[in-house]
């Protein structure tokens, strides 16, 4: 039997723990396959962190495309004549941070990060807070199955927008809130305290929020390009690609994401319900159970808006995301119907052919029917 738990292997520095080892044994018992983690996805290929080192493998033909952070089983011993080492399957994900593929009329899901324990929702102190954006990010973070942690960056610039912290705490929907500065090192120990061996954290937030600087400060060297790179600055530096897993010295793993504009939600009803639990609760006390919260008599939402206990902006933000998810489902259903329609046409054609066929040769009454 192969030993999948050698301590201090490259695999462990990418977050391999007894939990993953057990999952691997359950999913691929006595298969001779090896566990590995997807450190990066490229077009049609992935960079895998395996016990023997990093390796690139093709993903064409796999029934499920791996995402960064996925745990996979791969066949290390497949002979070159058969195409060499290959991914055999994916371990079930315990979390997936996803969004709707941008500019995609077919409404496909894009998984930005798999198997994260924490989604660091990054908001900087050097600019006014965008509450809508924070809410949207929190919805996606809660929905991923990982735990959101709000990280307020650039604490050294705190004086500029003092109101930001209070607003964020109010809107964090139960998530913990930390304050850090990559400049002074404030709060980094507290943040590091969340990053126990085997934990994975992806950072999510607008461009310029300080995500890359935070990662560099935690790792202790320049692994991510931060800020504007002046001519000559980038020379000889080994920076990892954004969205590549970055191992911390202790077996925790970090992941940066590029600042994503207009993060479109994917099936995030659960996350929406978490971030706006108060609104969904409020809506249950409307007089009519099918209240659309417009001009109905006895509408608890309209009453709360009128007396100021529900902020208009927050209600609008909730409604916008709710509509977005509803229209996503409409398109998903329409696509499913088209698929069913095509399948039906195929079946009808096959049935017609079978009838034709039977017309010529009756199947033997005692023979196998299929
Ligand atoms: N004063 C201050 N500036 C920071 C801090 N962290 C990042 N910055 C600056 O903010 C800018 C954007 O940082 P960067 O890490 O590239 O942000 P990213 O786009 O989220 O990765 C850069 O010019 C950084 O030098 C901080 O803690 N304090
Ligand atoms: Mg960056
Ligand atoms: Zn109502």
UniProtKB/TrEMBL annotation:
Organism: Arthrobacter sulfonylureivorans
Protein name: Small ribosomal subunit biogenesis GTPase RsgA
Keyword Metal-binding: yes
Domain of life of the organism encoding this protein: Bacteria
Entries under PANTHER family matching the protein: SMALL RIBOSOMAL SUBUNIT BIOGENESIS GTPASE RSGA
Domain EngC GTPase: residue ranges: 114-261
Record text on cofactor binding: Binds 1 zinc ion per subunit.
Gene field: rsgA
Keywords recorded for this protein, A-Z: Cytoplasm, GTP-binding, Hydrolase, Metal-binding, Nucleotide-binding, Ribosome biogenesis, RNA-binding, rRNA-binding, Zinc
UniProt biased composition (Basic and acidic residues): 355-370
Cellular location(s): Cytoplasm
EC numbers, comma separated: 3.6.1.-
């Amino acid at each position: 039997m192969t030993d999948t738990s050698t301590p201090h292997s490259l695999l462990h520095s990418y977050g391999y723990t007894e939990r993953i080892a057990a999952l691997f044994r359950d999913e691929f018992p006595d298969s001779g396959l090896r566990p590995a983690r997807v450190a990066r996805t490229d077009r049609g290929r992935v960079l895998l962190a395996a016990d023997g080192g990093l390796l690139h493998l093709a993903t064409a033909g796999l029934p499920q495309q791996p995402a960064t952070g996925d745990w996979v089983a791969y066949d290390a011993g497949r002979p070159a004549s058969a195409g060499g080492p290959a991914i055999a399957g994916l371990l079930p994900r315990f979390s997936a941070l996803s969004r709707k593929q941008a500019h995609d009329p077919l409404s496909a899901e894009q998984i930005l990060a798999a198997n994260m324990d924490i989604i660091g929702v990054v908001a900087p102190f050097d600019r006014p807070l965008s509450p809508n954006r924070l809410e949207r990010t929190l919805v996606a973070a809660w929905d991923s199955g990982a735990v959101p942690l709000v990280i307020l960056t650039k604490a050294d610039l705190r004086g500029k927008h003092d109101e930001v912290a209070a607003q964020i705490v109010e809107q964090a929907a139960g998530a913990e809130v930390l304050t850090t500065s990559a400049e002074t090192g404030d709060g980094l120990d507290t943040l590091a305290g969340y990053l126990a061996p085997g934990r994975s954290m992806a950072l999510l937030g607008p461009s310029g929020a300080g995500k890359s600087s935070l990662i560099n400060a935690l790792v202790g060297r320049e692994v991510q390009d931060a800020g504007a790179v002046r001519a000559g600055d980038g020379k000889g530096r080994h920076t990892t690609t954004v969205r590549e897993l970055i191992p911390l010295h202790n077996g925790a793993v970090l992941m940066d994401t590029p600042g994503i504009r207009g993060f479109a939600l994917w099936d995030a009803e659960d996350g929406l319900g978490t971030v706006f639990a108060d609104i969904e609760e409020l809506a249950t006390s409307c007089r009519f159970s099918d209240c659309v919260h417009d001009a109905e008599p006895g509408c608890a939402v309209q009453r709360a808006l009128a007396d100021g206990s529900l902020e208009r902006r927050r209600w609008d933000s909730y409604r916008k995301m709710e509509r977005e998810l509803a229209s996503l489902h409409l398109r998903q259903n329409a696509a499913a119907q088209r698929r069913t329609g095509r399948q039906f046409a195929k079946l009808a054609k096959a049935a017609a052919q079978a009838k034709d066929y039977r017309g010529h040769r009756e199947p033997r009454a005692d023979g196998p029917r299929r």
